[in-house]
Automatic annotation (TrEMBL):
<dbReference type="GO" id="GO:0016887">
    <property type="term" value="F:ATP hydrolysis activity"/>
</dbReference>
<protein>
    <submittedName>
        <fullName>ATP-binding cassette domain-containing protein</fullName>
    </submittedName>
</protein>
<dbReference type="InterPro" id="IPR003439">
    <property type="entry name" value="ABC_transporter-like_ATP-bd"/>
</dbReference>
<dbReference type="InterPro" id="IPR003593">
    <property type="entry name" value="AAA+_ATPase"/>
</dbReference>
<dbReference type="InterPro" id="IPR017871">
    <property type="entry name" value="ABC_transporter-like_CS"/>
</dbReference>
<keyword id="KW-0067">ATP-binding</keyword>
<dbReference type="InterPro" id="IPR050093">
    <property type="entry name" value="ABC_SmlMolc_Importer"/>
</dbReference>
<dbReference type="InterPro" id="IPR027417">
    <property type="entry name" value="P-loop_NTPase"/>
</dbReference>
<dbReference type="GO" id="GO:0005524">
    <property type="term" value="F:ATP binding"/>
</dbReference>
<dbReference type="Pfam" id="PF00005">
    <property type="entry name" value="ABC_tran"/>
</dbReference>
<feature type="domain" description="ABC transporter">
    <location>
        <begin position="1"/>
        <end position="208"/>
    </location>
</feature>
<keyword id="KW-0813">Transport</keyword>
<keyword id="KW-0547">Nucleotide-binding</keyword>
Length: 208
């Protein structure tokens, strides 16, 4: 269970609005986050991942405090053991597909399975600038899964994929996430595309 009770002062949204999020994410569940552009969806993911700090509040994961502004405690992203798919992929320009995955995992069987999942088996020696946008996005997803994270945060993870690839990938991703037992939070502008995942919707409209 991840318990989030935080306040974030959004820097530019209508001149500095306060975003309050109080929510529990049940272990192994999928939550789909939807809301207007600029409402703070990415910012929330970054706060959970430890890449930015809330103004106030607490984040507790399985009884371990990740963030508490009073104590103060702020665990580094490395200690939170999260898989993060960034909206802009954040790939390493000098690493090949294979190196991206080996950087995150030394489980060769798992890497092979991920390459199959993302249909990147024929591109293992390619660096990001020799991959299409959709291939880059798939690599970002595979890299996030490589560490077998218990918490998977995905920010618009399917936006660059054609509908056939999207469906295929999601169909394979669903059992894989279940196998990992990963608590999953997916930000998407298109809730319909996430239909395959059973889970609650968290609506950001009206939160700020
Ligand atoms: N670390 C931060 N602390 C406070 N505010 C931030 C931080 N990072 C970004 N912001 C501001 O928060 C607002 C929301 O940005 P964010 O990227 O979270 O929106 P979003 O809902 O993900 O939007 P989109 O759907 O367009 O991706 C922006 O105005 C941005 O400037």
């Amino acid at each position: 269970m991840i318990s989030v009770d935080i306040e974030i002062k959004l820097k530019a949204y209508h001149g500095g609005q306060l975003l309050k999020v109080k929510r529990q994410f049940v272990s192994g569940s999928v939550t789909k986050i939807w809301g207007p552009s600029g409402s703070g969806k990415t910012t929330l993911l970054k706060m959970i991942a430890g890449l930015s700090s809330p103004r106030k509040g607490k984040i507790i994961a399985d009884e371990i405090t990740w963030f508490d502004h009073e104590q103060p405690i702020n665990l580094s992203p490395q200690k939170r053991h999260i898989g993060f798919v960034f909206q802009n992929y954040a790939l390493f320009p000098n690493m090949t597909v294979q190196q991206h995955l080996e950087y995150a995992s030394n489980d060769t069987g798992w890497i092979k399975r991920l390459l199959q999942l993302g249909q990147l088996g024929n591109f293992t020696t390619h660096k990001p600038d020799h991959l299409s946008g959709g291939q880059q996005q798939r690599l970002a997803i595979l890299r996030a899964l490589a560490t077998k994270p218990k918490l998977l945060l995905m920010d618009e993870p399917f936006s660059a994929l054609d509908s056939k690839m999207k469906t295929l990938l999601m169909e394979e991703l669903k059992p894989l996430i279940k196998q990992l037992g990963a608590t999953t939070i997916i930000v998407s502008h298109n809730l319909q595309e996430l239909e395959i995942f059973d889970g609650e919707v968290m609506d950001f409209e009206g939160l700020v």
